[in-house]
Amino acid sequence: MSQLQEEREIILGNENVDAFDFDEVREFVRGADEQLFISHHFDTAEKMLVQPRGGFPTYEKQFALYEFFVDANVDVLPLTIDSNTRLNDYTTAKKMLRLSEANEIDMLNGYPLVNHGYRTTRKMMTHFNHPVSLRHGTPDARLLIEIAIASGIFEIEGGPITYLLPYSKNFPLDKAFLYWKYVERVCADYSTLNKPINRESFGPLTATLVPPSITIVIQLLEMLLSLEEGVKSFSVSFAQQGSMIQDIVTGTVTRKLADHYAKQIDCEDASIHLVYHQWMGAFPTNRDSADQLINMSTVIASMVGADKIITKTREEAVGIPTKEANAQTVANTQYTLNILGGLPAVVDEQEEEILTAEVKAIMEAVFNDPADTLWRKVFNSIKNGVIDVPFSPHIINHNKMITIRDAQKNIRIIDRGNVPIPDRCFEYEKSCCDLNKDTTSIVNDIIHDIGIMQ
Amino acid sequence: MSTENETDGSVLNGVGQLNGHSSEKPTDQSSSNSKLLVDIGSTYFKVSTAHSIEQHFRDFNKRILDDLMHKCGDTVQRFDAQDIHICSSANGGLSTLIIGLTHSYSLKYATNIAYNSGINVIDSILFQDIEEYSIPSDLIDVVIIVGGIDSNGGMFDDRLHAYLSKLNYSNVVYVGNAPDAATLSKSINQLVVLPNIIDDRLHIVEKHLKDYLTNLYQEDIEGKEDIKHLYEITGNQIYSTPFVVNKSLPHIHASFSVTDPFILLDIGGATTDVHYSKDLVSDNIVTEQEHDRIVFKKLGVFKSRQSLIFTAENNEYAYELLMHLKVTENIYKEHSEKATKILMQLAIFLVLCKMSHYRPAYVTLKLLSMNSIVFTGGITKVLTTADIEDVVAFFYRKIMNSDHKPVTVLDTQYDIWTIGAKEQATCQ
Amino acid sequence: MKVVTGVIGNDIHVVANRLMDLSLNARGYEVFNLGVNTYLEEFFDAAVETGADILLISSLNGEAEGWGREVKLLKAKYKNLDNLVMMIGGNLTVGSGNAEDIVQRFKSYGFDLVCHQIDLNTGLDMLEDHMRQSSPALETTGA
User: Fold this and answer.
1) Chains touching chain B at 3 or more Cβ pairs under 8 angstroms?
2) Could you give the ipTM of this predicted complex?
3) Cα separations in angstroms, B28 against B15, B47, B86, B426
4) A77: domain CATH number?
């Protein structure tokens, strides 16, 4: 038996799993309808796929949510996991699930997949026969993704960096890399049976003034870590940044460099997709303004040429959205995509050149780390601040980089910390901003720049 | 366990590998496989070649070297001094007493470094209350003084000197703020000054103190009268066992089906060593290695038998555990094979308690997330997997209120120690 | 002037915390930011290790009532923190309440400065005023 299989048996021997049948699950994946695979839709769809967010504790509520989504003509269904499960606390999740079932009050902020189990959940997934995307935020997702794939969920979001730095203060990053390696291997293994399992990185990170160079570097690195384990379908992603031109340039550079680096490790046979998140920062409390913002995001996603868009709702500022509001966004987004036509091809060569140079410089610094494996090179680079994610709560993150918006609302780096942004790029970034102010005013600008959509 | 895994080049899978080696190169002693590895514990010593592992109870009336040569002389003589590698945990290792400013930073960081260097922490003292602490009567091998970031200073005063003057210690090292270093090195004899272990972001800096303590441990082993004689048979440096075990943990997956996060328990005659995956604790500390170590002194089944029994008598579940194991407290007075077995089972339970919320000590581990529990040391020769799983299940049911069942792995062939020793041997 | 700051308890309001860090820096303080999810004891311990003049705790999800009472008790265990200026800011209670009452209550818990639902800059202006009054020498050096 391989080492991976031994590890899988231990992971699935967890007391919260009801007799995991490896052979049966393999047979299920092998024979699963191609409609369940988002990788199939990426290959065949001629439009941008629309995917909302959402997860409720009970089976019935999740089922009802999917009914609304399907009525709204959804392309990809989400399964958002509750926060106890994200922290591997299945005992509490179980307790809260029972309470939610008994009392009609939701005691969890998502669907506790491990507690529901794959036999139950698979019934829902095969009933709707839509591709489903697993949304979680788990540093150790080994058990979760096993249950997900066994349930018929063939897209797994996340990664060791993007699911750790925005969410955790002290989960050991080196462990996260090793646990995600397991995820990649299991996804790669199942991908040989039918259409490939798609992996998607979480580009929004902290959704707070993260400059495109940092976003792209992390997308590329998680892509490489995934492809080197044999994953054949991968989505890089980012969230609306606040400036249309910066989004367009980010999309262009991300696509170009994703192909470039995939080729460098002889993985050009993998298919790479681009995913765009509607605005992930602080949302307006006014529901009508929120609708306008969502609509604008959809237009920009079209300009960017994304393969999939992930939507928000008009109730974003209030709390967990109702299924009605959630489904309404899906319908609205589909409508906008339908009526959009004659989009101009916008190119900004200077911005592209600058951003490409920044990303390549950081990537080079990562590759030059003396460690023997890619994951350890990345780990070291985060530890020594070569990669620095603004507003990350994690103790390993340097928090030295400072960013601000220029007059066009582009995110610019005004303090690069330890990140090896080339001098001429850094000078360019700073020259776009008005820095002839006292520092308190600049901090006030940053506060303003974060709340730009409110 | 895989027996067909060809990439696994270590001498680990017991008989399966043993045959493989002996059929290929039965007498070639110049290859790296032909090393003799010796581990001296407080109770047993173990002798391992590529072909066999033997362990013997120590005879305390003899010098270690004589005892070793008496029992394994033939084996030892077959090897060149250059091919013999020895590690030792006899005497329970070095002891330290830490004096620091706060629990969350100076004391916590120094304790973490000390444990990871294989040192036992006898006591940690909050400096502001130093006058209220009793003075340990035992000789302390090394006193660590720590506190403050480098832009702070003037933290220590005469109370420190008063305390030190009453303390019986061999070494003293300062790893606190820079400004105080100058004053203290004038007033404290033989003070070794190293860079601060707390940086300006209040993060830990391990390297300098860790190197110092590791070296001190080496020197101590070399200096021990008993161990010294062992240099007559080896041409290599003698290392401490915890150091060697820690070296092996990153390679453990090659030999065992062990799944992270896991803990490794080495319940010895005098002390119990625990190595644990870092993600089992939620600690705001970024250290270099994937596993941290902690040691419970006075928790062992031979030398520390009395204190083990004392701890058990003060644990409200221990009585229930004895009932579960179908014995009575009379077992404490017995000196039989059965009694040893029960004491070992008790030791497992008590160690797990000490790492849980029930009896919090230095760390509280997230034991419900633990996937594997690895046992090494003499215990693997006495208890079966079933004996151990019985106690572990009892612990989870009573203390954790859960049916969680980490996979039990027994290192019966001392592979863990062998990988580390070989790793160390290859590095030389 | 050294300031130890951070967000207390089970709270992940990173943005507010980082902005606090930047604002304090901009005003010339030497900042030790313990980040989110920090325990009360870690705050005091950090003040000791750094020799901080000011401890500025943020609490944003109304949990402060829960641990506020413990502040005095815990601080009393420290022998060198008598001169530490204690400030708390954020959303100190769940739901609405009389601001005056809330300020008084948190002062009785041992805080010198209490900012309930007050914007960042106003709060930091209050801190500067307070520091000037308590140590006039500061006026010449400026913060």
Assistant:
1) A, C
2) 0.92
3) 19, 19, 21, 17
4) 3.20.20.240
